[in-house]
Specification:
With about 675 residues, the chain is mainly beta. It has six helices and 44 strands. The strands form seven sheets. It has a 23-stranded mixed beta sheet, with helices on one face. The chain has an eight-stranded mixed beta sheet with strand order 1-4-6-8-10-12-14-16.
């Protein structure tokens, strides 16, 4: 799921204000002077670096160097002769090495920003004893170790040490009463979350504990600070229920608690959080119904509760929350009919209801959500046909309807073909009433990149209209009853990197064009496609999972030989030709340098380039490669010159892969038996 380390706009402008206030002061030549202790501190800092491009120039050990004009340094407006360093902003300056304890000598420092560098090692305790420091940003480095339990940062307002490797218990900044931003996310802090930071600071507004190793029950105590605007404890190991004091924070705008093991019901006291804009409690163990309180949340834009154990139907008050942009509720046990007034949700862009138990028909007024980009209703019990109103879904980019009981594929394709923004279309595991794959009458899908019509038991052949879909990257039409040959034009689709026509009844030889596919010979070695529809960052849905470049032709009736041209597909990761009637020698495939999975089992192959390969599983089901007179004992199965095809093999494999967005294991896997 997406996580942003960026501060909200208010804090971003606050940060800019600090930088402006501490902007370098220009001094005349007669006035230039750094305090000797500051100059020594800066010299010690540079000496601790392995490399930098700061361009600072030290003049021996004298204090005559004008450090106030150096890159990243700000000085005060005090004495005309001696200036004190109050700001050190070295963000994104390609610094490498360690942080020197000499920085503790900058005893007037108010701003210290070393973020987005390659600093590593321990942070010296001296940095946590700078009483005038207002902003400390060490984020996006490789710093590690413990943060000192004792600190003296009495003036600190912004404390950001995120995206490092700090461990132990997290700091609570005792005695720091002015903290407004506290971010320790993406480290390795462990143990319970200590709400003592709320006792220390009277003005805390942002708390981020995300992506650490915190454990124990979700703590009470955050309710002590009515000023709190964001609370993020996602991606940890927290248990228990959400405490009641959390729902007294009427100023909260953002709650991120996804990716823990929290349980209990979703409290109807959430209605008290009237300023809430974003709440994500996905990937926990919440149960019970979703409370019908959304008419009180008139600022809510994002509601995420996927991967829980929620039951019941969608609360009717969702239709009263006109500010909603994203509703993510996939992988629960929700039931009932989807019959909300979607016309009342004009800003809705992402509706993710997949893998529940919804029934009935698709609401025909969904296209009235004029900004809708992602619609996922897959894995439910929906019936009927795709509404004709979907012709008006001009903004829709991703449509997942697989795993339902829809009928009339031809009508569905005719309705959807004209959608100008549609890039991903998944219709698999539908239309299983003996329908035919339409061969003509389809002329659109000009921008479609993914087409998934697998496991529908369709008869017919590979449709010729696919040849006009020049932007296709992924075609999955496996698990049907398609006959005929594999058309040569499939290999001419320049962007195609994933082709799965397995588990059909295709005949003939493998077309030579498949060995000349541009994206597999010259394209990127890995491709991304939106499969896992989860996460929200910077106003955008984050949803990517990777599919390996693949050619999957298994479990058909293909004949002929393995084409030597496959050796030129240097970007191909998966080649599966198993369970066909392919014969002849195995050619030299050593040029396929990125190949991770090769399956040639259950064919009629004889020796060739791979006849000395130690992994004998490659020979399984190839009569002439196993047993006497060869020395290869491939398996205990009874050998036969006529390999058996299994019409059930793999029919659910692709569906499961797409449904869950599973990753692809690396390492060469050479044809294990299916």
């Amino acid at each position: 799921m997406g996580y942003s380390s960026e501060l909200p706009c208010f804090f971003f402008f606050f940060y800019l204000l600090l930088v402006f206030l501490f902007a370098p002061v220009s001094c005349s030549r007669s006035q230039r002077s750094c305090h000797s202790s500051d100059l020594n501190a800066l010299r010690g800092f540079v000496e601790g670096l392995e490399s930098s491009a700061l361009g600072w120039s030290f003049n021996g050990r004298s204090s005559s160097s004008d450090c106030c004009t150096w890159v990243g340094i700000s000085c005060d407006l005090g004495s005309a002769l001696v200036k004190r360093v109050i700001g050190l902003d070295l963000s994104n300056k390609s610094l490498k090495g360690s942080v020197s304890s000499s920085l503790g000598g900058l005893d007037q420092l108010k701003l210290l920003n070393l973020s987005y560098n390659s600093l590593r090692g321990l942070v010296p305790a001296e940095l946590f004893h700078l009483p005038h420091l207002e902003l400390l940003d060490l984020s996006m480095n490789m710093l590690s170790g413990l943060i000192p339990a004792e600190s003296n940062l009495s003036s600190i307002q912004v404390f950001n040490i995120s995206f490092n490797s700090f461990n132990g218990t997290h700091p609570i900044l005792a005695g720091s009463s002015n903290v407004s931003v506290y971010d320790v996310s993406s480290n390795s802090f462990s143990g319970p979350v200590d709400t003592g930071i709320c006792n220390s600071s009277y003005s805390i507004q942002l708390l981020r504990f995300s992506a650490n190793m915190f454990s124990g029950d979700f703590p009470a105590g955050f309710g002590n600070r009515s000023s709190l605007s964001e609370l993020s404890l996602d991606a940890n190991g927290l248990t228990g229920t959400l405490p009641d004091d959390l729902f007294t924070l009427s100023s909260l705008t953002k709650i991120n608690h996804q990716g823990n093991s929290l349980s209990g019901t979703v409290s109807n006291k959430i209605r008290n959080l009237s300023n809430l804009v974003h709440i994500d409690i996905s990937s926990n163990n919440f149960s019970g119904v979703i409370p019908n309180v959304f008419d009180s949340l008139n600022k809510l834009e994002f509601f995420g509760a996927s991967f829980n154990k929620l039951t019941g139907g969608l609360p009717p008050s969702l239709s009263n929350c006109s500010t909603l942009i994203a509703i993510l509720l996939r992988n629960n046990s929700l039931t009932g009919i989807i019959d909300h007034n979607f016309t009342a949700l004009p800003r809705l862009k992402h509706l993710i209801l997949g893998w529940n138990f919804f029934s009935g028909r698709i609401p025909p007024d969904l296209p009235n959500c004029l900004q809708m980009q992602t619609l996922n209703l897959a894995g439910n019990n929906l019936v009927g046909e795709i509404p004709s109103s979907f012709k008006n879904f001009t903004s829709l980019a991703i449509l997942w309807l697989s795993g339902n009981n829809f009928s009339n594929l031809f009508s569905a394709l005719q309705i959807l073909q004209s959608l100008p923004s549609l890039t991903h279309l998944a219709l698999g595991r539908n239309f299983r009433g003996g329908e035919i794959m339409p061969s003509d009458g389809i002329q659109g899908f000009a921008n479609t990149e993914l087409l998934f019509i697998a496991n529908c038991a369709l008869s017919g052949s590979i449709p010729p209209w696919l040849a006009n879909l020049t932007k296709l990257k992924i075609v999955i039409i496996s698990g049907n009853h398609l006959t005929g040959t594999i058309p040569s034009w499939l290999g001419n689709l320049d962007n195609l990197f994933y082709l799965d026509v397995s588990n059909n009844s295709l005949t003939g030889e493998i077309p030579t064009s498949l060995t000349q596919m541009k994206s597999l010979a010259y394209g990127n070695s890995s491709q991304d496609i939106g499969l896992l529809i989860e996460g929200y960052s910077n106003g955008k849905l984050v949803q990517y999972s990777s599919l390996p470049p693949s050619i999957i032709l298994s479990n058909n009736k293909l004949v002929g030989s393995i084409l030597p041209g496959f050796n030129g597909l240097v970007k191909l990761l998966v080649l599966d030709l198993s369970r066909n009637d392919i014969s002849g020698p195995i050619p030299d495939l050593s040029g396929m340098s990125n190949l991770e999975s090769l399956n040639l089992s259950h064919n009629h192959l004889i020796g060739g380039q791979f006849n000395t390969l130690n992994d004998l599983s490659i020979y399984i089901g190839n009569y002439y490669l196993c047993g006497p007179p060869t020395e290869n004992k491939c398996s205990n199965e009874e050998l036969s010159p006529n390999p058996k095809r299994d019409n059930n093999i793999g029919r659910e494999a692709t569906w499961s892969y797409l449904a869950m967005g599973l990753g692809f294991a690396t390492g060469l896997w050479v044809c294990a038996e299916s």
